[in-house]
UniProtKB/TrEMBL annotation:
InterPro entries (UniProt xref): 5peptide_repeat, Pentapeptide-BTB/POZ_domain
PANTHER family noted in UniProt: BTB_POZ DOMAIN-CONTAINING PROTEIN KCTD9
Protein name: Pentapeptide repeat-containing protein
Gene3D superfamilies registered for this protein in UniProt: E3 ubiquitin-protein ligase SopA (2.160.20.80)
Pfam families named among the record's database cross-references: Pentapeptide, Pentapeptide_4
Amino acid sequence: MVRRASGGSAVRGARRPEVRLPRLEAYGGGGLAPDGDYDGLEFRQEDFAGQDGAGARFMDCALRDCALDDTSLRRARLLDSVLTGIRGVGTDLAEATLRDVEVADARLGGAQLHGAVLERVRIRGGKIDYLNLRRARLRDVVFEGCVLVEPDLGGARLERVEFVDCVVKGVDLSAATLTDVDLRGAVSLEIAGGADRLAGAVISTGQLLDLAPVLAAELGIRVEG
């Protein structure tokens, strides 16, 4: 999918994940295990608060309405999976890999995804506060109809990332690298830092006017009169 910016240059659109789950078996309980291997399972309304699933692998799985407060999924791999209605504060997904993943209606606070790799991921609906994506790699990622409060993308690399009908409050782009990032669909866009890193992104005319004070300050321009 290719979209055209107002100046005529092409913006490569993000590829959406195509998740086709097989017939799933109900998870038998017992808690998460470090380096666990979970294949073709449905986790429904499980409480994983405080559990350690670091290094675990989830393949063709569905997590529905699960609690992930202070759950460790550091370096976990989530592949061809669906996460619906997950909730939690302090969920640790640092250095995790998410590939071909659909996330819907998540309610998360302070989720740690620094150093993570997200490829063909769609995050739809819900609200995520203080999302830490520092030094993460995002390729073919779509944020759709969600609210992102103060997401930290410092030092991250974004390629073919779209923001569609979502609210982005106080995003930090310091030292980030953007390629084919489409921000035009964001209904609200606030940049707290790193406005100078917007090269490689496309914004709308209205967004440009809204961001003018931030861009002027970044360039050291005084606006008077």
